[in-house]
Specification:
The protein is 60% helix and 5% strand. By secondary structure, it is mainly alpha-helical. It folds into 2 domains: 3-109, Orthogonal Bundle (Recoverin, domain 1); 115-212, Recoverin, domain 1. Strands 1-2 form a two-stranded antiparallel ribbon. A two-stranded antiparallel sheet has the order 3-4. Helix 1 (4-22) crosses helix 2 (30-39), helix 3 crosses helix 4 and helix 4 packs across helix 5. It is globular.
Length: 214
């Protein structure tokens, strides 16, 4: 997929920019700081945190208490003091009931995107999700992503399945469960970070269309 190289170079500059901003010593809004911490981990930063929280949601309530939130931030390896984590939690816990709704939390954490970008991300997801079940699998990917030119496929180092699974793992976050299934939310989380690294709407649109032949 051409277009991936564009993403990687943009991602690298976003990582560097975020690290510089985190180190500048200025006071920051807790939510903004958490977003920067995620950005400093690249496109899978927000994904990794989302996955960690989802895995901790033992009772399926989609709500996190302070202990779970604190553990999630620490487990994901985002450098924050206890006071900062408490500030973040308070900011996300709008109704002061001692818990955070995970979906709302992610919507706030993800950088805002214009509707045009959400639409093109949605279009790419629908194109790959051949079965229409809301989850992208290796089987879905096989029909839209050719490995024939992949250097490791040509050299015999990796099979088609291995390459496709590795491609899907990109969307799951390095610390995810890497189950080879990508939900729409994970796909959006990944591209929300990529989107933050591309200022121009038309260019974001172009890169997405090139990558997924839309």
């Amino acid at each position: 997929m051409s277009g991936r190289d564009d993403f990687f170079s943009k991602e690298a500059s976003l990582i560097n920019r975020s690290k510089r901003e985190l180190a500048d010593g200025r006071d920051k809004d807790p939510i903004y700081k958490l977003r920067l911490l995620c950005f400093s981990r690249g496109a899978t930063g927000i994904l990794g945190l989302a996955r960690t929280f989802r895995n901790m949601d033992d009772d399926g309530s989609k709500a996190l208490n302070y202990e779970e939130f604190h553990k999630g931030i620490k487990d994901t390896g985002l450098e924050s003091t206890d006071d900062e984590i408490r500030d973040m939690f308070t900011k996300f816990d709008e109704d002061n009931d001692g818990s955070i709704n995970m979906t709302e939390f992610l919507l706030k954490l993800r950088p805002p995107m214009p509707q045009s970008r959400l639409d093109i991300i949605d279009k790419a997801f629908k194109k790959i999700d051949r079965t229409g079940d809301g989850v992208i699998t290796v089987e879905d990917l096989r029909t839209v992503y050719s490995v024939k030119d992949h250097p490791k496929y040509l050299s015999g180092e990796m099979t088609e399945n291995e390459i496709l699974t590795q491609f899907l793992n990109n969307f799951e976050g390095g610390r995810g469960n890497l189950d080879g299934k990508v939900t729409k939310e994970e796909f959006q989380n990944y591209y929300a970070t990529i989107s933050a690294s591309i200022d121009n709407d038309a260019y974001f649109d172009l890169v997405m269309r090139r990558a997924y032949k839309l």
